[in-house]
Amino acid sequence: MIELRVNGVLHQVEAGPETPLLYVLRNDLRMNGAKFGCGMGQCGACTVIVQGKPVFSCVTPLSSIGAREVVTIEGLGTLAHPSPLQASFIAHQAAQCGYCISGMIMRAQALLAANPHPDEATIREHMEPNLCRCGTHMRILAAIRVVAAGEHA
Amino acid sequence: MTRHDDRVDISRRAFIVNGALVVAFATMAPARLLAQKVDTLGTVILAPNLPGSLKSNPFLDAWIKIDDSGITVCTGKVELGTGVRTAMLQIAAEQLSVRPALITLVTADTARTPDEGYTAGSHSMADGGTALFNAAAQVRFLLLTAASSRLGVPVSRLTAKDGEIRADDGRKVTYAEAVKDIQLHRQADATSPAVDPKTFTLIGTSLPRVDIPGKVTGGAAYVQDMRLPGMLHARVVRPPLPGARLKQLDVTAVEKLPGVVRVVVDGDFIGVLADDEWRAIVAARALTRAAGWTAAPALPGYAGIHAALRTLPAKVYPTASRSTAPVSTKPAFTCTHTKQYVQHGSIGPSCAVAQLADGTMTVWTHTQGVYPLRGGLAEMLGVPLDKVHCIHVEGSGCYGHNGADDVAADAALLARAVPGQPVRVQWMRDQEQLWEPYGPAMATDLKATLDDAGNLRDWNFALWSTPHNERIVNAGRLAPATLLAKPFVSAPPVPIPNPEGDADRNAVPPYRIPNLDVTMNFVPEMPFRTSAMRSLGAHINVVSIETTVDELARSVGQDPVDFRIRHLDDPRAVEVIRTAAREFGWPYRGTDDRKAAGFAFSRYKNIMGYFAIAVEVAYDPDTNAVRLLRAVAAIDCGQIVNPDGARNQIEGGILQSTSWTLYEAVDFDEIQVHSNDWSGYPIMRFSQVPDEVSVHIVDRPGLPFLGAAEIAQGPTAAAVTIALSRVMGSPLRDLPLMRHAPFGRT
Ligand code: FES
Ligand code: FES
């Protein structure tokens, strides 16, 4: 058994220590937000926040998390009470298929938590690791920009 | 392990043997117009006079069911990330005069919904939307008629709203009551009660997408998110390249790995089932190491692919021909364009869940066509059609025929080995990029002349391509079925009939040209399986046409936008061109010689949505970096159902087409495909995204829905190519424009 703290809740997980966090979140903890995209740290679909930093959960072994807090999109807000960033993605209709979007939101969330008012260049540079195949980038940027400007605060 | 030696998959495709291209020919189906009574999406036409998909599903109750539990609307179309679910809801709710929330919408399910073939080709609104629009209007009218007899008042004194029909004296009948007096199992009429589009309260509004809130808050939204009780996780192991044969595989060690439930080996088809996903992955990796394969036949290689295309046996299809004026004596303008293989490149690799229970194989799939897939699976499994049930569940955006159908076949084959237990199969990244059907490599030759007045006079266009339509018409179109010990044979490829077109989609220029000749060379056999990818041949065809028109206009000192307008008779085409030009600020007056603009237009398939676009690009000769700065587009897709949804689609199309055009090519040499992950197949990233993209809608209330999903691909590619050619000072004719062999490999 390995202890894992996700969204403020401490879990006892049976998975082996080498298991990537992604599979622990999706299967052991039955969460949907973190997505499998490449399993190689190339696309960001699996992005979650570990101790304030965006990480690729697909290449992060369970054993490397230790006592650090994991935050997934399920920990930001709910359907009834979305977080400001989630609400902004809804307001901008910033999704086509939406498969990349949880990862996009988590990467942006990590930036905004550390730097609440990033400029455009900082946002783009920070989002660089995450891929979207549908071409939703303009709306993703717009959704982040509005929160970064404090218009949702 | 035994299998038949006449390996069919191979005999259908062409390979290099001892340096020479060889091809084993399957007999071609003779004519592309064979399929008279079947539409281009694979459905049978039963009532040709009815609107939209009512042609193939003429009964009203196939679309709309009303009872005490409420209103159920069925569509054979599926959500591919285009917002189609929301748009269908808007249409049905508008015409039934109810709030969208009162409708339960069921999308493609072979047990519940009409067979609308594939969700593809920008047909969803034109076919499915039109069918619902009419079916709902007719059902509403029948309900009103029934209420009129019940209440003894004329229809003119009745109002239908939110499931109730009220008379002006205050009495009311619910839809569920009224429906008891009528028979919805009846053929639709060819015409529906007229409605004034001015009265619409839902059609034409930007109803927020119903699926987005769940998707951004961690809801279960995709087939990847399914968790059925007792579900096993599976992985497949594929040959390193198509055509490699399994030489040896000892599975005993893998069978003993923790969590492994079963290893399935059937010919060259290999899969492993485990009680946990990560354990399935670990076992699949062990199987990959344990398997020995024969060498695959040699490939023509990236650099040789277009020469190979022109050399291989081809079936020649004259696409258009006219001769109405003397041939020009002016010198001819000629050019050749090429395009490399491209990948759909879904962010989420293909996935399916299957379960064999009570003799029925149920498959949850993100296919574009549940009915065609059911046919392929039934043949593969050797069971009657009614023993296979396909249910659509969303996947990652697919942009055409990707691995969705193949992974459904994987899941069915593996679920057959463990009756009763649900099996989830998830492809890995390299499998998605090596085994999805690619968008074809193509080549085009164009020769054109102007007359003395500077008008287009002669136009000769020839193109070479492999199939864009290897959809599931039999089991052999499913990759896993071709790997079995008793392999299935893919049906011979047949191009899509005109006017829709296949490789020759949009090969005929939209302009007034007296002498015209357009020919498609259809190459049925090539090393890679190719199939439908957003806009098919329109991508390179529109690039070829529009770059030529641009150069010809400039050669006689004319503005390329004015030149186009002078050659167009269709006022809707002219209006989108003028709108895009005006909103962009055309003619472009940039003074920075590191920036330039380009303009392009096409009407998708020459019969669907109109699209014009102006772009501005920047090029830095010192770093060789290119960026699209600004794109301004105008569309006319007939009556717009959801303006914001259409804009979202078009914005995405512009970015995706720009990515294809600048960067995308499958990297392969004689022995290997190197584009097996995102480092080997780079696509647009945030640093390459434009500063501004705007989409202007020319709405046409009351006119037919035309669809928007694919209309941006060709013209965007053309405008980017034109702009980049201008800033670089010489014409660019090989796609992708900014990434070429040797791709930084050593
Ligand atoms: S799935 Fe983790 S980076 Fe792609
Ligand atoms: S919205 Fe489909 S991949 Fe980003």
Q: What does the model show?
A:
The complex is a heterodimer of chains A (153) and B (746). Chain A is an alpha+beta fold. Chain A has two domains: 2-75, Ubiquitin-like (UB roll) (Roll), CATH 3.10.20; 84-148, DNA polymerase, domain 1 (Orthogonal Bundle), CATH 1.10.150.120. Chain A has five helices and five strands, in the order E-E-H-E-E-E-H-H-H-H. Chain A has helices at residues 21-28, 84-91, 101-114, 120-127, 137-148, and strands at residues 2-6, 9-13, 47-50, 53-56, 69-71. Chain A starts with a strand and ends in a 5-residue tail after the last helix. With 746 residues, chain B is an alpha+beta fold. Chain B has 17 helices and 27 strands. In chain B, the strands form seven sheets. A seven-stranded mixed sheet of chain B has the order 11-12-9-19-16-17-18, with helices on both faces. In chain B, strands 14-22-21-20-15-27 form a six-stranded mixed sheet. At the A-B interface, helix 1, helix 2, helix 3, helix 4 and helix 5 of A face helix 5 and helix 16 of B. Bound molecules: FE2/S2 (inorganic) cluster (2 copies). Chain A: Keywords: 2Fe-2S, Iron, Iron-sulfur, Metal-binding, Oxidoreductase. Chain A: One of its GO terms (molecular function) is 2 iron, 2 sulfur cluster binding. Chain A: Pfam families: Fer2, Fer2_2.
